[in-house]
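User: My instructor asked us to take a sequence, write out its structure as tokens, and then describe one feature of it. I'm not sure where to start. Here is the sequence I was given:
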Amino acid sequence: MATEAPDTAFDEQQFEAIYPTGVERHYWNICRNGVVADAVRSVGPGPVLEVGCGKGLIVADLRARGIDIIGVDLAPVKPLDSVKDHVRTGVDLFDLDPSELVRFRTILLLDVIEHIEDAAGFVARIRAFLPEVRNFIVTVPARQELFCNYDEFNRHFRRYDLATVRAHLDPGGDRRWKASYFFHLLYPAAWLVLRLKGRRETRYNVPVSWTSRMIHRILAVLFRLDHALLPARWKGTSIIATVSDR
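Assistant: Let's start with the prediction itself. The structure tokens for your sequence are:
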């Protein structure tokens, strides 16, 4: 991902650490992609713009599901070949011609706003720049007590709770709002690892063998059920929120 500030944009080292080739097969990404796809469908039809799309992992996944989406990212990284015609990298959203973006009604900010010091101001700036947008779908890392070396490596300013997400997306409290923690079952494991080791890995291990791929698919299903069945307010390691104009 990247934001409007160059010092918060990922460099190649960070991209390769958390988005190595094949990372789309990791259970975390499989699960998050599904959760995001459900949220996009819930706001109704219409083209989607992902801001901070990185190499285009989500763009590729959602397009494969039949969703009309393009992405833009500040970092000058190479997009995935499968979506190179639908992703623009090395460009700031606010440098684009807004007349080219009037068709978009939904913005995705997926693990983006935690990288921005003034997240509420950033969202407000997007609203002013693209007044036709009606929906924001956002994911963020959750629970400040889990803040650690991984967040520092990725230049996070914070981890979120539900109240802080709403304060940054809908400070007036006058929009339709839905939010939930997810990866509930990861929370106790992450908490315990930090208490015992004081740090966590900063790289993703990509499943390569058939066996490891199957394990990751099974885990992804487990965490989708975790999100679907457990109470939204139960602590998890991530949050997904949808904010829509009334």
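For the description part of your assignment, you could build on this observation: The chain is about 35% helix and 15% strand. Try explaining in your own words what that tells you about the chain.
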